[in-house]
Here is the input.
Amino acid sequence: MAPRYKCIETKLVHAGEPEPRILGAVSMPIFQSAMFEYAGETDYHDLKYIRLNNTPNHVALHEKLAALENAEAALVTASGMAAISTALLTVLSSGDHLLAQDCLYGGTHDLLTRDFSSFGLSYDFIDGDDPDSWKSKLRPNTKAIYVETISNPLMQVCDLQAVVRFAKEHGLVSLIDNTFASPMNFRPPEWGFDLSLHSCTKYLNGHSDIVAGAVIGNAPWVERTKRKLDHLGGSLDPHACFLLHRGIKTLALRVRFQNQSALRIAQFLERHRQVARVNYPGLESHPRNARAGELFNGFGGMLSFELNGGVEAAQSFMKSAQLPVLAPSLGGIETLLTRPATTSHSGMAPEDRRRVGISDSLIRVSVGIEATEELIEDFEQALGG
Ligand code: PLP
Here is the structure.
C-alpha cells in the first residue's frame, strides 16, 4: 500500500495520530494508566501494560517514527542507551561477535568495552572509512556490524553504503546510531540498514526535557527487540511519550534551521585565525564532504573544533562564551558546548582517545535555534575578536 503521507513535514504532524481523534482531542492525550482491562488478548506480550510498550501513547509514536524513516516498524525506549543495549542484546547471543566503528558515543563504547564480556559477547573495532580492512576482523561467530551516521565528536561520515553491502555479503545484521542526523537528514532503512537507533533525548524530542530512545527498522527485528525490551523493562513512561510526541512535530523546522546555522558557524570558525581545525561534514574541507552530500539531506547541527593554544585556549573560550550553555547532551533548542575529553568520552583511555583523534582541547558544539548572527558575534568575542 502506498504510504499515506508523502512528505516528512506532513508525517511529523499527522502520521500515527489516532483515528478517529480520541473524544475529538487535537493533541494526543496522555494515557497514564499502568494497565488496561483485558480485551481478549491471549499472548503475554499483547497484554496492555506500560512495560509491554503498547499503550495508546506508545502505539502512536511507533507509527509516527516508522513513517519518518520509511521503515516497517518502530519501538520507543526509556533512553537512547536502552535502545542501543536492547537492540544489541536482541541481535547478539552469548558467544557472538560484533564489528563496531572505532569512534562511538562514549556510552556505547563503554557498553562494549566494559559490559560485553559479562554477557559472553565479544567485539572488534573497525575503521569505518576503510572497508578493505573489515574482512580481516570477521570471525565465524560475527553476527552484526554497528556504526554511527555522523560520529561523535569528530563528525566523521564512514562508508555507510559499504557497511550495508558488507553486512549483506556476510549475513550480518546492520545497526546504525542515527541520532546526530535525525530522520530529517538521513533515513537508514532507505539505504538498507536493518536497525536504526536513536537517542530521542536529542533532536527527535528537541527540548532537552526528557530522555528517550527509539529502534526503527524491519518488522521482525523490531518485534524481537520489543519482546526483549518487555523483559529488560526499559520502557518509556506515557508522560514522556507525550512530551516526545509533542517535540517530534517541530523536528523539520528545528533541524532545517540548525543545519543552516551550523554550516554558517562552521564557516565562520574555519576562517578565524585562532581556530586550528573545524570538523563539520558540510565544509568543503571535510574529508567526506562529497559522501555526506550524496547521503544526507542536511549536514546536521553538530560540529567540533580545536583552537590554537590547546586546553588553556579551549577553557578560556568556554568561559567567555555567553550564549551557549556548558552542558552535556545535544540536539535541543539551546546551543550547548562541551569538551568531550572531560565529558562524553572521559570513559575512554587517554591513549584510545588520542588514537582516534579526540584531543583534550576539542570543543563540541550542539547548535540550537538562537539567531545565527548573535551566536557568531558571541563566538567572536569569546575568541578575543
Ligand atoms: N547515541 C548518541 C550518538 C548519543 O550522543 C547519546 C547520548 O549522548 C546516546 C546515544 C545515548 O542516549 P541517551 O542519553 O538518551 O541514553
Observations:
- Residues 79-81, 105, 107, 152, 177, 179-180, 199, 201, 211, 213, 329 surround pyridoxal-5'-phosphate (CB under 6 Å).
- The mean pLDDT is 96.
- The first helix runs from residue 8 to 14.
- DSSP finds 13 helices and twelve strands in the chain.
